[in-house]
Amino acid sequence: MRISDCLVVAVAAGLAYLHDPAPMPQSAAPLLLIIAILLMPQVSSLFGVYSASPRPDPAGSLRISGSWVCVVGVLAAAQLVAMPGEAGLSIWIALWFTYGLAGLLFTHLLYNRWVRQWYRRGDLARRLVIVGMDDHAVALAHHLWLTHDDSVRVLGLFCNPGNAASRAASPSYPILGGWEDLEAFVRHHSVDAVVLTVPWHAEDCLQMWMARLRNLPVDVLLCPPTSSAAQTQWGVSSMAGHRFLKVAERPLAGWRYIAKAVEDRILALCLLILFTPLMLAIAALIRLDSPGPVLFRQKRYGFNNTIIEILKFRTMVASEEVSGGVVRQARRHDPRLTRTGYWLRKTSLDELPQLFNVLRGEMSLVGPRPHAISHNELYAPIIDAYVARHRMKPGITGWAQVNGFRGETDTLEKMENRVKYDLYYIEHWSILLDLYILLRTLIVGFVHPNAY
Q1: Average pLDDT over residues 135-158
Q2: Bridge-based pairing state of the strands 193-196 and 126-132
Q3: Angle at the Cα of 251 (from 64 to 253), degrees rounded to 5?
Q4: Is residue 425 pLDDT above 70, yes or no?
Q5: How many Å apart are CA 4 and CA 9, to the nearest integer?
Q6: With b meaning 16 or more CB within 10 Å and e meaning fewer, what string describes 228-241?
């Protein structure tokens, strides 16, 4: 809708120019058009224009009209200050306002109809599961089912085995299993939120669930008993007329997910084009240096603990990359390294083929570095929140790497520090932070004492 608004503003300006019989300064129109395109999405966001709803919004037309009035008001004021007395320019702005208002109202009416249809089909519904241990979970699931709110889809309930039989009789929701089945279900199904209906007095159980669920890329909502008057600083979320306490949040939600995906694809494509001659030269050197394939493929854990196959330039003797199915990290002066591989690792150029992983959507340019499967299985049980690194796609470079925590993790402390920096990045992600990390990688990140 933001892109559409910018296009409508540009087309309306062109139509106004075609239908304006009065002369006008040619240099002023492009500048005013650029200002309008930059302002329109920002002002509309302030007016709440881009909030999708499954129900008709009577005030939607007023909000988009008010946004356009504000933008044109700024343009008219700029014209009066910079070019007073330009009648032709004033007529053009008036025509531009008329065409723009008609176009914006029409496109938003069309989009709102589409959004409501998508909600009715369930395309935009939040998919959630409920975890409960008493009748409060049953009442909540039944309430969500009775409201028939198109913005929410209850997939089912996870409960302790002692109450499963009584709850299975309710037609409003399916029983998906016991508590031990929850994590596997979330990892293999599209789940947006997990709602905990654990009572306040079960503090140990509540802490246990919060610790387990924070490793999953879902919103974790706590629904307290309706009689509770407990005060908390947790966020509040509303769905289907019911209020929940949000105790954990997905790292990338809404536009943040789209922004990072667009950033990854565009920058990865540009970098791939830029480095293609270098990558071809490296491939030739690898083939001349030692027998074996140019690329090394390795299974690693990616987003949400899914297995991905990352690509790297081969830097070791082909038969020594993996020994007995166990991946050994490269050490300083590692005898397995080839002559070309030594310099590739020293400059981190062996990571360049992972740009293809980024284009395939398996990795990001910036994110927690993917670890070998054997390393994950080693550190996950002994480092708190280690698996939480997988709440975001792994990256070619990351916050931990540009802060010096890269290379061999031969001590537990090194891995703990790397995890700490990875979790900081996940909680504080922004496009500016990504660009800063990429800039630091280009300046100081390729050559590092720990790169070997």
Answers
A1: 78
A2: parallel
A3: 25
A4: yes
A5: 9
A6: eeeeeeeeebebbe
Domains by residue range for the chain, with CATH:
2-121 (no CATH), 126-248 (3.40.50.720), 255-445 (no CATH)
| Terminal Cα-to-Cα distance of the chain (whole angstroms) | 48
Cα separation, 199 vs 407, whole angstroms: 45
Chain centre to alpha carbon of residue 41 = 21
Tell me which residue has tokens 């890329």.
217
Report the candidate in 41, 46, 36 with the shortest Cα–Cα distance to residue 99. Answer: 36
Rounded Cα–Cα distance for residues 384 and 420 (Å): 10
Cα separation, 74 vs 40, whole angstroms: 11
For residue 239, what is the enclosing H or E element?
Answer: strand 235-239
What DSSP string describes 145-189? HHHT-TTEEEEEEEE-HHHHHHHHT-TTS-EEE-GGGHHHHHHHS
**Residue with the larger pLDDT of the pair 156 and 142:** 156
Helices 87-121/28-46 angle, 10° precision: 40
Residue 353 has pLDDT above 50, yes or no: yes
> Which run of H or of E encompasses 412?
helix 412-427
Phi and psi dihedrals of 248, rounded to 5?
-155, 155
Distance, CA of 67 to CA of 8 (rounded, Å): 14
Give the C-alpha separation, 236 to 144, whole Å: 17
Mean pLDDT for the chain overall: 80
Query: Which has more confidence, 67 or 235?
Result: 67
Q: How many residues does the chain have?
A: 452
Edge-to-edge strands, sheet with 152-159: 175-177, 152-159, 126-132, 193-196, 219-222, 242-248, 235-239
Please count the CA atoms within 13 angstroms of the CA of 434 that sit on its side-chain side: 21
Positive or negative, the CA dihedral 326, 332, 338, 343 is: positive
* Residue among 293, 268, 274, 273 nearest 283 (CA): 293
Question: Would you give the distance in Å from CA 237 to the centre of its chain?
Answer: 19
